[in-house]
Structures are given as structure tokens and as C-alpha cells.
Amino acid sequence: MAPSAHVTNFCDLMKDLAQKLEEDQAEQQYANIIQTFMALAISKLAHGCSSFNRWRTENHNVEGVFARQGIGMIWNFAEIDPFSSTTQNWMAQVDWIADVVEHLPHNVNKGETHQADAATTIHADKGPVIVKDPPYYDNIHYADSSDFFYIWLRASLRDIYPELFSGILVPKQEEMIASRFRFKNPRDRFETQLNKTLSLIRERCSPEFPASIFYAYKQQEEERQGRTSTGWETMLSALVNAGFQVTGTWPMRTEMSTRVNSIEANTLASSVIRVCRPRPAEARQASRREFLNELEAELPKALEQLTREGHIAPVDLAQAAIGPGMKVYSKYSRVETISGDQVTVKEALAAINQAIANYDERQEGELDPPTRFCLDWMKQYGFGEGQYGEARVYRRRTSGRPQPGNGAGRQRPVAAARLLFSRQVALAGAHDSLGGLLPNGLESRSPGWQHPGCSGYRPGDGQ
Fold this sequence. Notes:
The structure is a single chain. By secondary structure, the chain is of the alpha/beta class. About 45% of the residues lie in helices and about 10% in strands. It has 13 helices and 10 strands. The chain has helices spanning about 5-25, 30-50, 90-105, 140-155, 185-205, 230-240, 290-310, 315-320, 320-330, 345-365, 370-380, 390-400, 415-430, and strands spanning about 55, 60-65, 130, 210-215, 245-250, 265-280, 285, 335, 435, 445. Strands 3-4-6-5 form a 4-stranded mixed sheet. A hairpin with a 5-residue loop joins β9 and β10.
């Protein structure tokens, strides 16, 4: 039996469920709720009943279709038994739905959901608290991915929600993404829609509470210095043009480390929240020199705060630092050069990246790239293991920093590693976490251990 046949059979049984509820004289509203929950469980079952499911050897389970943000080709697939007690079975999906329903705050308040265009919606017009996760430019095709679940939900719920399932597939022409395969001038279209949406949010948002904007999309690292991804530049430009100013930046652990696309992907280990408020109408202008001076003064303190209080992962620190930098830029109504031209968001991002590099240079400028890699890795993982994808990000970050001229002041990786190990031993203290002897009296539990980034160095080499 093909994997999709399981889901088809479950959809056919929904008619029997509706008939059974009618025979039991269940109220129509109650019957609709039960059928909706069962349809959601069928939708989740479809995620594990496809010829695009792969077997994860490391966890011994079946990976869902959307381990990434799209459906990728695979040479073979894993098929499940929905009536077994193993991975992706039917009762596991029902239990997921039941757990969600059990924890819904139904006794606290009444919630409402509306399907509407965010740029023109008539809802949320009474000073709501805004929490937004905007589209990631051209990185994810949401409507195309939604079709996978829509067809099964439509088969089960078309009679209950005819207004939601009137189309054969999900509408796509109104989608706010920069798809070059679907739209002409995708960037201009995306910018227009995003500006319109954020302007409406600025108009409707509560004056008492800030708006929170999630964005777990990294700046792309290109060879040209100061170049940032179009997604970031567009989103921040729209935010500033709509009349918002960034007032805070905080990380939130929302990204699962076990997801497939966390390795070699343009995503963050943590979502970075930009806390925004409407910029005062009387906000003054500033010169580019004022902006740069304030950036150099404020950014180091913000980086230390993010590390100390926010517990931001070093791999995401440079990304999170965009927030404090944009806080300086966005509080002004306009930043101008000496000739009167406006300093764009793209130019501001380049200045922020340079300020971050200057900060890193002051902190670790005498260390060569392998040693900086070692230092960053130790801050995040200590002597533990980490994902290979994150190691690549660390490596690119440490390799791209400015280097001291003529090699002056550089320390050998071994020397820096010894300093790092010395600090680790001092912190370990009475815990006696290190066991065998290292050179110069340092200790390590594993005599054959080699830290990534310390090329050619093993305790006991006598270097």
C-alpha cells in the first residue's frame, strides 16, 4: 500500500465519524470541534506517511516530510505502520492534539483567529499587542508548502468550513514573498507589501506596549565587505520607514537543535526578537559622524550585556548585535552624510558590522583564526561536542576578522589554548574536572583529547 493510501482511508472514515456523532445526537458545534481535531491529527499523520520520509539512523525514527522548509528528493523512503506503537503512528498524532487541547488556556480568556491580509485587515483595531514573525524574503515558499496539508484538511473539513476550503489549492497570488518564479519584480513587490503592512501595524499598535518582531534569518556572508542579505536590508528598511525605532534586542530559544536544516542552513540557533516602539514625531536628525561615534560607544556595552544577561550563543552574537546597532540608527528621523545624502539601512548595517569587527579585534585581536575558533567554541561548549554546521559558522566568523599587520602580536594556537585551559582549570577548582597531566602542569581528563581549532596540538606533545 502506498503511504498516501493510509491518509486517504483516514479521510474516508471522517464521514463515518460525522454519521456516528449524528446518531449520538451530539450538538452540531461539538461535532464540528471533534471532526476538526481529528482532521488535524490526519494532517499530522500525512507528515509521516509520504514517499518523502527518510529514516534517521541516529535516532532510529522516521523523519517528517518538512524537516526542511520544502520537499526535497530522496532516493528511498521509510514507510510506517499507522497502527503500530512505533514512530509516527496514528495514536501518537492523536496524543499530540490532545496535549495541545489540554493545555489551552480555555478558562482564562476567549481567543479569536481571523484569516486576513495583514496589509489591509480590518481586525486588531483597538490597540493590540503586536507579535509578528514576518516572511523570510525568498527563503521559504509558505503557500506551496501549505498545499501538502491543505488537500487533506480540505477533504475532511470542506463541509464544515466552506469559506476556508473553497479553492482546490492554497491561494498564492497574495503571498508576501520575493519569489522570482511567480512574480515580476519580486523585490519591489515584497518591499511594497512589507512597507504597507508595517505602516498599518504602526498605525494600529498599542501606545502602552511595544511590538515584538521575530527574525531568525542570518545575514548572508559574501565576499564583498559590508554586504548584507537582501532579506535583512528590506525588513529593517521597512521597519524604519514605517516609523518604528528598535528599543531592545533579546534572544529566545525557539529553534530546535535537532532539526535537519539547523546544519548548513541560513537560520539561527536562537530567534532574535526586535522590540520596537513608534518613533516620536519630534525625533531629530543626526549626522553620519554622530551616528558612528554613538555606535562605537554603545555597541560594546550592548554586546557584553547580550553575552552576560541574554546568554546568546556566540554563533549568533554578531547577528543579535544588529539590534543594538539599529537602536542607535532608528531613533533618529534621518541620518545624513556631510553632503546631505541620507545614510541608508544598507550603509548602517555595514557600519554596524564594522563596529562588531572592531570590538572583536579589541577583544581577541592578537589571536590568530584557529585560536579564536578555539576560544569561541570553548565559550559555547566547553569540552563538549557541538554540531558540525555551527563549527563551520564559527570558522567563517573567525576567519573573516581583520588581522594584525605583519603578524605582530599574534600568539601561537598552543599558547592561547594553554591560557584557555588554565582558566578552565581555575574555574573547575575543587570539582576536579580534569585528570591527566597537560604540559606546564595543566590537567586534562583525556590524554588524547584535541580541541577543534588547535591544529596539531595534543596534550603530551611537549609543545
